[in-house]
Amino acid sequence: MERYGVFGNPIAHSLSPVIHAQFAKQTGLDISYDKILAPVDGFSSSAHSFINQGAKGFNITVPFKIEAFNLATQLSLNAKTAGAVNTIKVDGDELLGENTDGIGLVNDLVNNLDISLKNKVVLILGAGGATRGILLPLLKQSPERLMIANRTASKAKQLALDFSTHGKTCGFGLDKIKDTPVDVIINATSASLDGQMPNIANGVANGAICYDLMYGEQTPFMNWAKANNAKMVMDGLGMLVEQAAAAFKFWTEKQPNTQAVIKHLRS
Ligand code: NDP
User: Fold this and answer.
1) What average pLDDT does the segment 72-97 reach?
2) Which element (helix H / strand E) includes 31?
3) Is the pTM of this model over 0.90?
4) Strands lying side by side in the sheet with 169-173
5) Cα gap 139→164, rounded to integer Å
6) End-to-end distance of the chain based on CA atoms, in angstroms?
7) Distance CA 189, CA 180 (A)
8) Mean pLDDT, rounded, of the chain
9) 12, 60, 170, 198 — which has fewest CB within 10 A?
């Protein structure tokens, strides 16, 4: 049996073991996948002890993605660009670091929801770790413009500057969002976790596709989008399953059927 797991703190809420158990069943692989609560100051030693027990790989969630970036001995382009790692594959003495968050979001938008980002105006709310992770995969979809708006304007400006070689990015404060519609709005703030909705112009949602990275309930962002005539409103459950599938493939080279798992979790 091959051993995998997910590190976080807290970790009790994680759906990853359920998702990976279904992937294993679908692909006929004999794997175990555990939730591992690492002490806030003890990620590296917990990870090494898991590796020494013969683990083949693991996921990393809040608050350890940057420490996982430092733990990896080799980094994919996505991981380097994101400055964070959510998946590690153990390959002999090497620890291969990958970031599948952005691939997960794009696969959910493009493959599951049939939303093309080509030539679209995309507004991202938030400039934290999740935004950094999704920017490169989103830019690869050739949007017309990718705007980053954040409560702390300087962080959005800096992020837009970091990705300026790809063109098309700009950054500003939430208060500078215009009251005119865009094509797609992605809520990558953690405001929904606190039951809050960033205070932004309502007109921007009119006819837009609105996607909250948070999942599992009607978030304040989703309620706001519906109340302001959004064309489509989605939570981030599909992204969660798709980022897990990309990690599963990175470890096992097998592509699971994500739609069946999304359907199961939603029911
Ligand atoms: P960070 O802590 O790195 O960043 C949080 C961001 O949210 C910052 O830009 C912060 O602004 C902003 N913010 C927080 N509270 C508010 C508020 N009340 N109003 C406006 N802006 C606010 O978090 P992450 O980037 O790691 O995660 C963001 C979200 O993405 C979380 O909800 C997380 O669960 C979700 N996520 C979902 C995934 C999935 O698979 N579906 C994968 C990864 C993340 P400021 O800079 O001003 O503090």
Assistant:
1) 96
2) strand 31-37
3) yes
4) 169-173, 145-150, 121-125, 184-187, 209-212, 232-234
5) 11
6) 29
7) 21
8) 96
9) 12
pLDDT in tens, 6-46: 999 999 999 999 999 999 999 999 999 999 999 999 999 99
**Residue 240 main-chain phi, psi, to 5 deg:** -60, -45
Ligand 1 atom having least distance to the Cα of 243: 40
Write the single-letter amino acid at 240.
Answer: L
Q: Answer yes or no: is pLDDT of 193 > 90.
A: no
Residues 125 and 186: beta-carbon distance below 8 Å: yes
Atom of ligand 1 nearest to the CA of 155: 46
pLDDT of residue 100: 98
Which pLDDT score is estimated for 223? 96
82 CB less than 6 Å from ligand 1?
no
- Determine whether domain 2-99+238-266 maps to CATH 3.30.930.10: no
Q: Does the 102-235 domain belong in CATH 3.40.30.10?
A: no
Angle of helix 237-252 relative to helix 258-266, nearest 10 degrees? 140
Q: Catalytic residue at 118? A: no
Query: In one letter, which amino acid is 224?
Result: W
Q: Is the CB of 243 under 6 A from ligand 1?
A: yes
Delimit the domains of the chain by residue range. 2-99+238-266, 102-235
Distance CA 243, CA 246 (A): 5
**Could you tell me which of 31, 45, 133, 47 has the C-alpha nearest to residue 90?**
47
Q: Catalytic: which of 25, 65, 120, 157?
A: 65
Peptide bond into 10 cis (omega under 30): yes
Ligand 1 atom 18, closest CA: 191
Closest CA relative to residue 112, chosen from 245, 6, 16: 245
Beta-bridge mates of residue 75: 97
